[in-house]
Every structure is written in C-alpha cells, then in structure tokens.
Amino acid sequence: MWxxxxxxxxxxxxxxxxLQTNRHALETDTHLRLNGAPxxxxxxxxxxxxVQNNIADHLIxxxxxxxxxxxxxxxxxxxxxxxxxxxxxxVKKRFPQAAxxxxxxxxxxxxxxxxxxxxxxxxxxxxxLHQVDSKLTSLxxxxxRAAQQGQYLARKFNKLAQAAPGMAAxxxxxxxxxxxxxKAFEYKHMGSxxxxxxxxxxxxxxxxxxGGLMAVYLxxxxxxxxxxxxxxxxxxxMDWSKRALFGRGSYxxxxxxRQAWCRMLTEHRFDGFLSxxxxxxxxxxxxxxxx
Length: 291
Prior knowledge:
The protein is mainly α. It is built from eleven helices and seven strands.
C-alpha cells in the first residue's frame, strides 16, 4: 500500500485493527509490514505509514539467547558488558535507525549500571532502551523516503521469490520469513533541498548553504534527475520554459492562448514570436497531460 498523503482511508483501516494506535498514519514494523495484519501480507510505504520503533517492547526477545545459555528467565537474567554488546548488535539489526544512538556502548553501560555491579539487570536494560526509544524520531514524509522504501521492498520481494522453492521444500511456511531472508529497512537521509523564488537552500548531512541562480539550476538538476519517467521530465521542462518566457501567474492559461490563436487566424498574421511559441507549448503540454 502506497499513498502520497494521509487519508480517511488510512484512518478507516487503523480503526479496524487493534494494534494500530497512531491517529495520523498506519504503523508498520521495521520490515514495513502493517502492524496487526498477518506477517508478509500487507506492506505500507510513503506518507500513509510510519515505522514503529518500540525497542524496549522487544527486550525479552533480545535477551532470550542470553537467558537460554544461562538457564534463566529473560526477566531475571543479568548481562555483562560483553553480553550487552551482543544485545546491542541484535538491536541494531532489528532497528537500524537506533544505530546512531548505540555508538558508545561503554558509556551507556556505565551510565545505566546504577548499582555499579558490572552487570545490567532487566530493569536497568529496559530503562536504557526506553531512553534510546525517546531519541528516535519518525522518518520524514519526503519523496526520498518513499523511493528508498520502494527500492527496499523490490529487493526483498526478489529475495523472497528466490528463496521460495527452498522454503517450500523444507516446509518453511510460518514464522518471520522476511527477517530470515532480508534485513530490516534502514533509511539513509540524502539531504534536503528547498526552492524559494530565484534561490535555493541545501542541507546535506548538517552542512547548509544557499545560493542564487546557480543554486536554482543545481536544485532543478537534482529534481530532474530523480523524476521517474521521460513524460514527467518533458512536462517539467515545459513548465520551467513557460515560467522563464512568461513568468508566473495566469499568462499561460487557456483563454490567453485562445485569444492569441484567434487573433492570428482572423488577422492572417503571426502576432509575435512569443504568441506562436505559447500556442505550441500549450498544445504539447495539453497533449502530454491528456496522455
């Protein structure tokens, strides 16, 4: 499921699923699967969805391996710094967006080892992961996020299709097949661009700068290159040419073009280069939009 905006349709779906608690978007896990739907049946990307990062709620799953080795219940196990590093690796794999907040594992371990025992108990570890949860933010509702999610799902579906014969032969038709075949979605912010009048503003990984006409053409180059089809690129070039020739406003609306066209027909003359060009541009633009 992909939508360019949060609609009433999303709200109606969320109202029918108990696990959906967000009022504005459909919640998915880190594999972009709709929470509350059977695993691997419904995927959501784009503005209609938000990736739920609830690391602390999965604490028992992260501790299950350590608890099994020690023969204890996950809620009573205490972990050393070495075991904490293993748990952190599992967290990063399941929740890639948390990797930036789990860089200094030694400092985190020291900070949340309240009793200075050299171990983290269940409560201390839950508090640590709750703190990481609070630092995670929703992914931006931008085109680059939706594009990355689309590419991610395409690669994962290919992997699932390739693995399907082997899984069928081994009767693997249950469980978390997505996690067994492919990694969780990781958003990589490529920067932000803003077009304001005859200038543009850029933000690339914290480096911000703005410029005049040169920056505008750079912004347009990026925008043009990211367009998905030849038709879209032609329409975009037409719009930019129209603005460069006639400026903003209603100079290129149909009544104006029709008047120029009628005047040329009735007076049997070419009323200026711009009038003829405006008719040509309008006709091409209209044909492309109606295609």
